[in-house]
């Protein structure tokens, strides 16, 4: 069997390793230059590859093609493969065939990384044999190849879910759905929503779907679509027949029996959105028979994700916060909503069809100055120049931080929460966050 892997990043190289281990004849093709660390892995494993081109004669000879999530369906090569009826799958589809471990799949526009890390943290504390991966850390395929985990906790993007056929998590979590990546979905929100719900498409009555009860997009989808899985919503406003809810500011889990887990005041992560993430994680762990004491301890001592509302330093009474992972408007909304002091907001990058008007009330209330960090800031400037006294355009993290340092006064916050992708000026959101932190430390 010939397996062709398109894209030699984390998921591509993981698939290549697993494919070789499973006896496939593997060929890796990348249109760009393959990063050194991945090239070494391919060489060490004697896997044949090409870079800076796609040789169609070799690719069209495949029995199955694994397409990396970053490659759009719309490119001619993918269309040609479909015309030839060559099977195109995603890495998580390929890898799931080769593990007997229980899969927890977590998706959503925001909160999926934090929720994935929370679930992993709880299961580790419960001494379970667990691996965390997918869209975070190691690829699922690499995990399956290298370890024999009993549990896989996977953060899943819509792009990863687009390429599944039989992939089925025992527990699926949808944290929320807000417009994101619309450039990949013909600017149709419903296409993106349907992608997210693919996480439950193969689930049966013995599986579980955990979701935000208050999310209108999710609620509307349920009006027109049936799900086989057992539904376990979480809610911070409503008492539920079944699921997770708050009573007197305590997290209550109700499924078969009712359990008080803890007071939200002792959660390590603050903010409404983090309470929801904690509820989803608690429900997941409870289904996996983790003791409530372990769940509570884990949620009390968890340290947050890097680049997500991460306190960097306080300088001259000004707090600098790195929220580089806020790559869409809704994530920036959470960040601005949690600001308690006048804010100098660093925003911008690659716009994915953003509508900034949702942020208007928060910007009016909290933001004293906007610093644009991107190549094309026109939309941001046009939206906010009447609302904020000062809007400055910059072309790099260091410049943005220096401008912020001049503007911010004692008691203010400087918040990097870009609401955009980072690829115009940076490698990725981590690179953007790291450069921001370095610039702050060098002030």
Structure in words:
- Keywords: ATP-binding, Cell cycle, Cell division, Cell shape, Cell wall biogenesis/degradation, Cytoplasm, Ligase, Nucleotide-binding, Peptidoglycan synthesis.
- Residues 106-284 form the Mur ligase central domain.
- This protein is of the alpha/beta class and 443 residues long.
- It has three domains: 2-89, Rossmann fold (3-Layer(aba) Sandwich); 93-301, Mur-like, catalytic domain (UDP-N-acetylmuramoyl-L-alanine:D-glutamate ligase, 3-Layer(aba) Sandwich); 310-441, Alpha-Beta Complex (Protein-Tyrosine Phosphatase, Chain A), CATH 3.90.190.
- Helices cover 35% and strands 23% of the residues.
- It is built from 17 helices and 20 strands.
- The protein has a nine-stranded mixed sheet with strand order 7-8-6-9-10-11-12-13-14, with helices on both faces.
- It is globular.
Provide keyphrases for this structure:
nine-stranded mixed beta sheet, globular, Protein-Tyrosine Phosphatase, Chain A, 17 helices, UDP-N-acetylmuramoyl-L-alanine:D-glutamate ligase, 20 strands, six-stranded mixed beta sheet, 443 residues, alpha/beta
């Amino acid at each position: 069997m010939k397996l062709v892997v398109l894209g030699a990043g984390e998921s591509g190289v993981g698939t290549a390793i697993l494919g070789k281990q499973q006896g496939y004849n593997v060929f890796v093709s990348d249109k760009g230059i393959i990063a050194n660390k991945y090239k070494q892995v391919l060489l060490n494993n004697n896997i044949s590859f090409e870079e800076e081109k796609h040789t169609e004669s070799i690719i069209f000879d495949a029995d199955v093609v694994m397409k990396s999530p970053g490659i759009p369906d719309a490119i001619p090569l993918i269309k040609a493969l479909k015309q030839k009826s060559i099977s195109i799958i995603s890495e998580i589809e390929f890898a799931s065939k080769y593990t007997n471990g229980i899969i927890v799949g977590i998706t959503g526009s925001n909160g999926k990384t934090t929720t994935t890390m929370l679930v992993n943290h709880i299961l580790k504390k419960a001494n379970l044999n667990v691996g965390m991966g997918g869209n975070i850390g190691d690829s699922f395929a690499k995990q399956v190849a290298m370890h024999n985990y009993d549990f896989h906790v996977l953060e899943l993007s819509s792009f990863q879910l687009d390429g599944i056929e039989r992939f089925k998590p025992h527990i699926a979590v949808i944290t929320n759905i807000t417009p994101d990546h619309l450039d990949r979905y013909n600017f149709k929100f419903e296409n993106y929503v349907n992608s997210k719900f693919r996480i439950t498409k193969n689930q049966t009555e013995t599986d579980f779907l955990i979701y935000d009860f208050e999310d209108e997009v999710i609620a509307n989808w349920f009006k027109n679509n049936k799900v086989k899985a057992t539904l376990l919503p979480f809610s911070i406003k409503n008492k539920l027949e079944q699921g997770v809810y708050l009573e007197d500011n305590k997290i209550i889990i109700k499924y078969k029996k009712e359990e008080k887990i803890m007071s939200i005041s002792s959660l390590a992560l603050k903010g409404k959105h983090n309470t929801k993430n904690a509820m989803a994680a608690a429900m997941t762990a409870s289904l996996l028979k983790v003791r409530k004491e372990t769940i509570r301890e884990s949620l009390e001592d968890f340290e947050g994700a890097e680049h997500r509302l991460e306190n960097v330093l306080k300088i001259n009474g000004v707090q600098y916060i790195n929220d580089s992972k806020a790559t869409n408007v809704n994530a920036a909304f959470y960040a601005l909503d949690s600001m308690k002091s006048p804010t100098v907001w660093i925003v911008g990058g690659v716009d994915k069809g953003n509508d900034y008007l949702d942020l208007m009330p928060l910007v009016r209330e909290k933001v004293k100055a906007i610093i644009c960090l991107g190549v094309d800031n026109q939309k941001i400037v046009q939206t906010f120049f009447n609302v904020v006294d000062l809007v400055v355009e910059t072309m790099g993290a260091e410049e943005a931080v220096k401008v912020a340092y001049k503007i911010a006064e004692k008691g203010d916050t400087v918040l990097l929460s870009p609401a955009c992708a980072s690829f115009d000026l940076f490698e990725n959101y981590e690179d953007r966050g790291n450069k921001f932190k370095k610039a702050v430390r060098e002030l």
